[in-house]
């Protein structure tokens, strides 16, 4: 089994999860203005991505530029992984490739301190990517708990939760995993309100910053 093969019922049973739907995850989030470069890129890319209308086109032409801009806004102190192998525990089905991972570590050779998982919706159906996203969020949580970044360092990373998103590029839906509870937000976010999407992504990074990577966690 791999991430993409799980159903919600299998995840609930295997990992003792509780699913809370229709939750207001992000209240009073401050919008973040995209850089002029991102605006120019998306102005050119969005019509092309929507015209081609494949997952790969939306991923490369819409999602990736947004995440690169996010990384730049954090002075490149976070990492963005795309299509990377992310095997954490094959015996429990926590293996496979992830569409996108945001990590608090600036390292690019391996995935450390993952905090946000982004999954491309299949056939433009947000619901279709939900189980895969949750499975990858669980894997990120397990990896962080089991991390040992140095011989005399802490045995795990003090990361309070894992965030996730399922997106078509033009539509985004967000999730949060805390312990064994998955919270799924009640609404969806549209690319027309890019400042709100960037604000939420920035909030995810800021509020999950572990104390033992580069200083105190920002609230």
Could you characterize the architecture of this molecule?
The chain is α+β, with helices and mostly antiparallel strands and 219 residues long. The chain has a single domain (3-207), classed as tt1808, chain A. The protein is 34% helix and 22% strand. It has five helices and eight strands, in the order αβααβββαββββα. The protein has helices spanning 8-14, 36-52, 55-73, 130-146, 194-207; strands at 18-23, 79-85, 97-103, 114-120, 162-167, 171-178, 181-185, 189-190. Strands 1, 2, 3, 4, 5, 6, 7 and 8 form an eight-stranded mixed β-sheet that branches. A hairpin with a 3-residue loop joins strand 5 (162-167) and strand 6 (171-178). Helix 2 (36-52) packs antiparallel against helix 3. The radius of gyration is 16 Å and the shape is globular. Mean pLDDT is 91; it is low at 150-154 and 214-219.
Keywords:
219 residues, alpha+beta, tt1808, chain A, 8-stranded mixed β-sheet, 5 helices, 22% strand
- The poorly predicted ranges are 150-154, 214-219
Arithmetic mean of pLDDT: 91
Q: Using the 3D structure, state the CATH architecture.
A: Alpha-Beta Complex
Question: How would you name the oligomeric state of the polypeptide chains in this document?
Answer: single chain
Intertermini distance:
37 Å
Class from helix and strand fractions: alpha+beta
Helical amount: 25-40%
- Determine the CATH topology: tt1808, chain A
Total E-strand runs: 8
**What string, H for helix and E for strand, traces the elements in order?**
HEHHEEEHEEEEH
- Shape summary: globular
Biggest beta sheet summary: 8 strands, mixed
Radius of gyration: 16 Å
Query: Roughly what fraction of the amino acids lie in strands?
Result: 15-25%
């Amino acid at each position: 089994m791999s991430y993409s093969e799980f159903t919600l019922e299998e995840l609930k049973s295997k990992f003792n999860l509780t699913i809370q739907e229709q939750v207001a995850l992000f209240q009073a989030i401050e919008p973040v203005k995209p850089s002029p470069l991102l605006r120019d890129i998306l102005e050119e890319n969005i019509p092309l991505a929507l015209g081609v209308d494949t997952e790969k086109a939306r991923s490369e032409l819409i999602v990736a530029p947004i995440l690169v801009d996010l990384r730049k806004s954090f002075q490149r102190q976070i990492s963005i992984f795309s299509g990377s192998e992310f095997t954490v525990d094959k015996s429990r089905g926590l293996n496979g490739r992830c569409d996108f991972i945001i990590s608090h570590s600036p390292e690019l050779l391996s995935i450390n301190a993952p905090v946000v998982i982004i999954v491309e919706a299949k056939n433009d159906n947000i619901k279709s990517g939900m189980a895969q996203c949750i499975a990858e969020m669980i894997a990120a949580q397990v990896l962080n708990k089991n991390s040992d970044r140095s011989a005399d360092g802490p045995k795990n990373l003090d990361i309070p939760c894992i965030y996730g998103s399922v997106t078509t590029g033009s539509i985004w839906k967000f999730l949060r995993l805390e312990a064994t509870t998955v919270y799924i937000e009640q609404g969806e976010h549209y690319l027309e309100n890019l400042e709100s999407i960037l604000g939420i992504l920035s909030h995810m990074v800021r509020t999950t910053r572990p104390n033992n990577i580069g200083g105190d966690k920002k609230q």
